[in-house]
Amino acid sequence: MLPDNKIAAQVLMPSDDNFHFAAKRLQQGKLVAFPTETVYGLGANALNENAVKNIFTAKGRPLTNPLIVHVASLEMANTLLQVDEEQQLLFSYLAACFWPGPLTIVAKAAAHIPKLLMAGGEYIGIRYPKHPIAIELISRANLPLAGPSANRSSHVSPTCAKHVMDDLGHTDLTILDGGECQVGIESTVVKINHDGHLYMLRRGAITPKMIEDVLEKSPCRQRVIRITDSHINSDVALQAPGQLLTHYAPTLPAYILSKQYFENKPCVTASSFSLAGCAVIDFCDTWSKLANHTASYIDLSKTGNAHEAAAKLFTVLRSIEKMPDITAILLPDLSHTNDDDLRTIFDRIYRAASGQFIYINRDHALLFENQVDKKSTFTVSGHNTPELLSL
Ligand code: TXA
Ligand code: MG
């Protein structure tokens, strides 16, 4: 790390020389950020404990949160594992179905993997990304690359090189610029557990149904255990330390704008809050009436396309953070959807808002509630006209 006013990171375009330079840096234990189809990763040699430590330091990531490792072949993945026959069968089957792609598979690690990488545990998360720059970099370095999302710990994941620069510009870091990430939301994480079952630890573009469908046709006998969405109980937190509630938090207060009226709930404190200072992130044209009454209004997908919305969510959150004088971000309420892709998006939205909802009551006041701590329910007075809010 350098003093505050010094930019130490450099952005490079993917050329033969630059791949060579970046691969050398990785072999020397240094950091290289790279694009994947999901989000940008902060890469370092996964087998070098000092290099792994550099990642934790650069991100400010708690040592209790393990890193995933990126590979460029199933053979490379197998060198990192110590699994029994049945677990190997499942691992290889999932890899054959979904790699390269947005699926991270957690399984029992080989003895030579640095403990620091796994936060002291015995399991390692592995992913073969589907991005030509990531694959080329791993192949040139000929190393498995530890690679969490390349953001400051707890901040929104980066979907372009500029986002990485914004968060980690003061770090000794080379960033390979691959433009915008296509998927825009981090990979699905599953764990091949010692009890013989496959646990879904994090939602992503590979849905539970997609996994169940391929397992049904496979010789594997493991059952898929779905973790309950957005209910971060201690069991899940232990299995998936990165699934803490405020994991994708923007720097501004954020709330989910509920479509439901909210009545007969205890209201404790009054506070001043005006829609005029809010940035509204919408989905499927639900709140377009608010567009002229708020500081900013952006629809993730007017037509309700989940893939389009996923690709935009983090980019939009980061762009709002940079707007002047925004007091809060209002996010779309997708809590009632049965669509797996929308549930994945809502998982990130729920965390960005730390589980806090805003409701509109029949008197046209805005109310907000922290679902996690039911006691802190507030009445919020605003300058909202009845016509505007009788939606
Ligand atoms: O799409 C992605 O997965 C991106 C790109 C760069 O590949 N990476 C990413 O890494 O999102 P990260 O560290 O931000 O998220 C990985 C998640 C974390 O929630 C972490 O706790 C979990 O995977 N994880 C990693 N190793 C694990 C392990 N051994 N057991 C359980 N969870 C693990
Ligand atoms: Mg992350």
**What radius of gyration results from the CA coordinates?**
22 Å
Strand order of the largest sheet: 1-8-2-3-7-4-6-5-9-10-11
Structural class: alpha/beta
Low confidence ranges: 230-238, 263-272, 369-391
Tell me what you see in this structure.
By secondary structure, this protein is an alpha/beta fold. Helix content is 28%, strand content 22%. Helix 1 packs across helix 5 (132-141) and helix 9 (306-321) packs parallel to helix 10. The protein is globular and about 60 Å long. Residues 230-238, 263-272 and 369-391 have low confidence and may be disordered.
Give the SSE map:
Layout (H helix, E strand, L loop, with lengths): L9 E3 L3 H12 L3 E4 L6 E5 L3 H11 L8 E3 L3 H5 L6 H14 L4 E6 L14 E5 L4 H10 L3 E2 L14 H8 L4 E4 L11 E5 L5 E5 L5 H9 L7 E3 L7 H6 L14 E8 L7 E4 L5 E5 L13 E4 L6 H16 L6 E5 L7 H13 L3 E5 L5 E5 L6 E5 L4 H4 L2
Helix pairs in contact: 1-5, 9-10
The site of magnesium ion has 3 residues, from loops.
